[in-house]
Structures are given as C-alpha cells and as structure tokens.
C-alpha cells in the first residue's frame, strides 16, 4: 500500500488486474446503456422531427458563433505574433462516456469508458459541453478514472474572466459539490456572478475554458483571506457524454522552449521577428520542434 | 458419482455478483447506505468452507476490489485479510449463531472493515469522508445478511460446493 502511494512500479500490476475487472464494469453499465439504447430506438417520429429541427437550429447558431470565433482566433494569432508569442494550439478531442462513479463517499471520481487501448494517458483534461470536469488520474486497459474538479484533493488554476484575477479553485470538503477559491486576498476584485475560466497555468487544462460561476463571496474581518465559493458549470452529476482533450504537454513544452529561446534571442539581438524565433528553436531542438510544427500546422489551417 | 468435486464456479459467480453490486452506480444520497457486499460474501465462504478459503484468498479478493474501486492497491486487500483471519478463528462459533446473532456479528465486521479502510486512507493521506455517516453501510450490511446467508447456503447445498 505504501509502495503504491509513493512509487509507481505497481502500476503494471494494477494495469494487468484491470483486464480481470473490466467485465464487471461492462455488466454494471449494462442497464444504463440498454436504457439509452431504448431511448434511441423507441422514439416517435414527431419527436425525431422536433429534435432534428432543434438540432439544426443549434447547428446554425453554433456555426455562426464559430465564424465569429474563427475571426477572433485569427486576429488573436496576429496579435500574438506581434508580441512574438507562439500561437495557441488546440488539442484533439476524444469523446467518452461516463460509465460509473466512485463508490467511496468522500472522493468525487468517475469512470469513463476509454482506457489505455484508446491512448488515454494520466493527466488528460476532461470536459463536457458546459465546462471543465476534471482530469484523468488512473488509466486501466479499457477504462480510466477521472478526478472531478470538486474532489477535495483537486485544485484547478482559474482566473476571473472579467479582469484576469488569478486563483486556485479547490474542491470543497463538504457534501455539496462546489469549488472554493483558496488564498484570495480581501482586496481581490471578485464578485458574485463572475465567470471563472481555466488559466492554463497548471499546463493540464486548456486555457480559457469555463470552469465555474462565483456563488458567494464572504469578507470576514477575522480571516486573512476572503471566502469565495463557486458552482461548477459542467454538469458533473448529470451528464454522460464527456470529451477528453489530448494532452498538449508536448506542444506546451514546445511553446515554452520557443518562448524561452525567443527570450534569450531577444536578449542578444533586439529586433527579431517571430518567424526567426521559431526557426532558431527548430535548429536548437531538432526532434521535438519539427514534430510540434507538424502538429501545429493543420490546427492553424483549421482555425483560419 | 458427483459431477464435480468442487463447484468453483458457484463461488466465483457469487463474488462476481458481489463486485457488480459494489460498483453499480448509486445516487449520491444513497452512497453511504451501500452494503458491503464483497465482505459479506467473503465472510460466508470463509465461514462455510474454512479449509478452502482463507487469508490468501481474501487478500486476492481485496486486490481485485482495490482495482475496481480505484483505491490504493492493498487497502481492501489488507482489510479483507484481517476480516478473513477473524472469521477463520471464530468460524465454529459463528456457525452456531442464529441469523439474528450473525447479523450482529456482520454489523461489527462490516463496521470494522469500513473503519480500517478509513484509517488506512487517513494514514496514506487519501481523501476521506468528512463525517462518520459512512458507517451506515455496516447497518445496511447487517440488514441484508440473513437473506444473503440463506441464498448462499441454498446455492452451496444445491450445487454441492465442498
């Protein structure tokens, strides 16, 4: 037990035992998937037409938003290029389904139906359509455990969307699944209703994805810090369909290297365009640089 | 004469069902009331066939439970082994008890299991429940035990598990 909590050489044992235990999950999930199947199959014609119309409307709406977003993204990239920062990379997305929740009270975790066979790795961010859900903490052959952001051992680096005030949102220890902002000074400008988005500082979560909404701010004079609570935007206890974001660590590392080298370069020569900075990185670190550039290009073309 | 000397599959099936019941999703408010299915099945088989199922078996069952639960590897294994040891040393007395008395013992055993995993989680700096309501699981286990005992005994006799 001690060995498992402190070292990781037992991971292989756990992984191979995962093959034995996988059928239990399949059977346990069976009723839920059957009910979903029944919902899908036995649905009236009228309902289908209605749903189709609604979806079409939503699609139109989303496409319009996407157009705006594309414009914003390219503008953002241009601005970033002006600032000699590398452009933001968006990771690929893998859809997954929640098939179980942790049976132990006190920890908030869910089990998803993607595992090592689907190239899931520890640390991947999990999102639903409304907000950030959590991150993968343990990978089994066909399933993986996701720690939700409301778990008391989970901290999410966030920032207030309105003014960029940074904080760390930790899961509450109580029974209510909510977030608490830790160590926020009394003077911080956070009010009820503020949207908290991920700041991307932990290098785990995509930047600027909505996380929670501030529900209460208590200024207690006896306390050094304000007590701020927030309600997660993701439907942590209702949704079944989630998204796994491909870990952008490699690309992030590239960004960091690119940034640091451009810093160093700019220290030597004062005026250096962005393109040259990227090239020097490529020469400096051949293998990861070319890889990341290959990854970056298709995404960039998608955005533009 | 007998079709099979040991009908192992009955034991395996009962454990499979217990694992299933242990991980089947519960609504949030009912989490504390989940009976300790695997512990009860383990106690039954150790009590009924102590010469076949002992501490080593309990340890393996606990390891599987750990993997299923996503908890620390060895947490349930150690607790199960301790439970199996106590059951082994008491099995002759336990068999003499009435169903109601057995339920009382199960209350103690399931509570012991919950407390042991709770303490071990604290020692290993894991997330634990903030209150003691999780001990209600022991109560529900004791409540379920008589029916489970009768069912398992019926299965053991019907399928001649020796």
Write the layout of secondary structure elements.
The complex is a heterodimer of chains A (304) and B (162).
Chain A: H1 2-6, H2 11-41, H3 45-82, E1 93-101, E2 109-112, E3 125-127, E4 132-139, E5 144-148, E6 155-160, E7 166-171, E8 179-185, E9 195-198, E10 210-218, E11 225-232, E12 241-245, H4 249-268, H5 274-284, H6 286-303
Chain B: H1 8-23, H2 37-48, H3 55-69, H4 75-96, H5 99-123, H6 136-158
Helix pairs in contact in B: 1-2, 2-4, 2-6, 3-4, 4-5, 5-6
Briefly summarize what is shown.
The complex is a heterodimer of chains A (304) and B (162). Chain A has 304 residues and is α+β, with helices and mostly antiparallel strands.
Question: Key features?
Answer:
heterodimer, A: 304 residues, Thrombin, subunit H, 6-stranded antiparallel barrel, globular, B: 162 residues, mainly alpha
Describe the structure.
The complex is a heterodimer of chains A (304) and B (162). Chain A has 304 residues and is of the alpha+beta class. Among the domains of chain A are: 155-236, Rod shape-determining protein MreC, domain 2 (Thrombin, subunit H, Beta Barrel); 249-303, no CATH class. Chain A contains 6 helices and 12 strands. In chain A, the strands form 2 sheets. A 6-stranded antiparallel barrel of chain A has the order 1-2-5-4-3-12. Chain B is mainly α and 162 residues long. The mean pLDDT of chain B is 86. The relative contact order of chain B is 0.16. The longest helix of chain B has 25 residues, at 99-123. Chain B has one domain. The chains are: A alpha+beta (304), B mainly alpha (162). The A-B interface holds A 1-2, 4-5, 10, 13-14, 17-18, 20-21, 23-25, 27-28, 32, 100-107, 109, 111, 138, 140, 145, 151-153, 173-175, 237 and B 16, 19-20, 22-26, 28, 31-32, 34, 63-64, 66-75, 78, 120, 124-130, 133-134.
């Amino acid at each position: 037990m001690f060995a498992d909590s402190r070292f990781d050489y037992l991971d292989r044992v756990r992984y191979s035992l995962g093959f034995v235990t996988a059928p239990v999950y399949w059977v346990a999930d069976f009723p839920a998937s059957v009910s979903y199947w029944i919902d899908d199959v036995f649905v009236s014609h009228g309902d289908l037409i209605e749903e189709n119309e609604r979806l079409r409307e939503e699609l139109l709406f989303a496409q319009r938003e996407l157009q705006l977003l594309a414009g914003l993204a390219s503008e953002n990239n241009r601005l970033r290029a002006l600032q000699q920062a590398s452009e933001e990379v968006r990771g690929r997305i893998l859809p997954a389904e929640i098939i179980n929740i942790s049976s132990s009270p006190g920890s908030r975790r869910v089990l998803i139906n993607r595992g090592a066979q689907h190239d899931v790795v520890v640390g991947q961010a999990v999102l639903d359509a409304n907000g950030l859900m959590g991150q993968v903490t343990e990978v089994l052959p066909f399933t993986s455990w996701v720690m939700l952001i409301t778990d008391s051992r989970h901290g999410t680096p966030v920032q207030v969307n309105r003014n960029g005030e940074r904080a760390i949102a930790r899961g509450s220890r109580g029974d209510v699944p909510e977030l608490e902002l830790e160590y926020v000074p009394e003077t911080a400008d956070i009010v009820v209703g503020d949207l908290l988005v991920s700041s991307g500082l932990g290098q785990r979560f995509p930047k600027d994805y909505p996380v929670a909404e501030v529900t209460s701010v208590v200024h207690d004079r006896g306390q050094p810090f304000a007590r701020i609570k927030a309600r997660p935007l993701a439907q942590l206890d209702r949704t079944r369909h989630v998204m796994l974001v491909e870990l952008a660590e490699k690309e992030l590392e590239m960004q960091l290297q690119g940034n640091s080298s451009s810093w160093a370069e700019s220290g030597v020569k004062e005026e250096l365009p962005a393109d040259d900075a990227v090239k020097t990185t490529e020469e400096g670190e051949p293998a990861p640089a070319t890889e990341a550039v290959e990854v970056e290009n298709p995404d960039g073309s998608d955005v533009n | 004469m007998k079709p099979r000397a040991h009908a192992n599959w009955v034991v395996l099936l009962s454990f499979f069902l217990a694992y299933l019941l242990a991980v089947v999703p519960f609504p949030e408010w009912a989490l504390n009331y989940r009976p300790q299915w695997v512990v009860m099945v383990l106690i039954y088989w150790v009590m009924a066939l102590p010469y076949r199922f002992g501490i080593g078996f309990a340890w393996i069952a606990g390891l599987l439970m750990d993997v299923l639960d996503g908890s620390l590897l060895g947490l349930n294994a150690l607790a199960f082994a301790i439970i199996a040891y106590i059951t082994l040393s008491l099995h002759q007395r336990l068999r003499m008890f009435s169903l109601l008395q057995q339920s009382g013992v199960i209350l103690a055993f399931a509570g012991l299991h919950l407390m042991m995993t709770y303490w071990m989680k604290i020692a290993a700096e894991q997330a634990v429940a903030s209150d003691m309501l999780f001990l209600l699981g022991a109560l529900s286990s004791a409540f379920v035990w008589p029916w489970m005992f009768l069912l398992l005994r019926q299965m053991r006799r019907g399928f001649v598990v020796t």
